[in-house]
Amino acid sequence: MAEATGKTALVTGATDGVGRVVARALAGQGWRVLLHGRDPARGEALVGEIAKAGGTARFLRADLASLAEVRRLADEVRAATDRLELLINNAGIGTAGEGRQTSADGHELRFAVNYLSHFLLTYRLLPLIRASAPARIVNVSSAGQQAIDFADVMLAGNYSGVAAYCQSKLAQIMFTVDLAGELEGSGVIANALHPSSYMNTTMVKRAGVSPMSRVEDGAAAILKLAVGPELEGRSGLYFNVQREARANAQAYDAAARRRLRELSLELTGLKGEVAA
Length: 276
Fold this sequence. Notes:
Blueprint: E1 8-11, H1 17-28, E2 32-37, H2 40-52, E3 56-61, H3 67-80, E4 86-89, H4 109-131, E5 135-140, H5 161-182, E6 188-194, H6 202-206, H7 215-227, E7 238-240, E8 243-245, H8 254-268
Parallel strand pairs: 1-2, 1-4, 2-3, 4-5, 5-6, 6-7
Antiparallel strand pairs: 7-8
């Protein structure tokens, strides 16, 4: 992954916070970066900044709270490039909010945006990623993880923003472990990480928490998984910042992962298209 000239990366949540730093860094290394975000003004401003610095980028707008928009985003990515060597699933919603919210499809909002959207996006783009091997998928998760309650995945009976966030982030890791097994031998690796604790991001500020680390710290951790030579051939791992670590025990429970996968295929409309 060292030679980036001519290679393409997609970064979700690229117009703010750690995603913005990662996108600029990749462009500086010679990647053509597809920038996902919701705000066209911020997206085009970042495209301009990258161009001014000599890089190449393109903005793609989508609201990940809508699975229809996720499908459209995947279509636009395929129309924009015939290769995708790097997918960084970074966009997300934090713990702050006024009570339980739902997505455009009626799913609990954090589960929908932080996890389901990226599950769907990854599978829609997987043929392109496979054809671009060697390639990498990085799922930006969190150290905040909570075992999924399969009796109430959408937390309709006992909601809290923290529980919703932590369930969604563990779901990302469980997905990563399964994806690594599915992609074994393909030249595509998939890993997940907690980038840094309480970075100076909009998400952290909205939660009313004082930052403990910088977005640059989180970006360095993400970039290690995205382009670091030490990750060549290593897949299905979880990192706490830049150190390999163990996630919540449910991530290594094959039966729990199978239940989550079956539910995810059903909720995203991928059932019948992707093997359960």
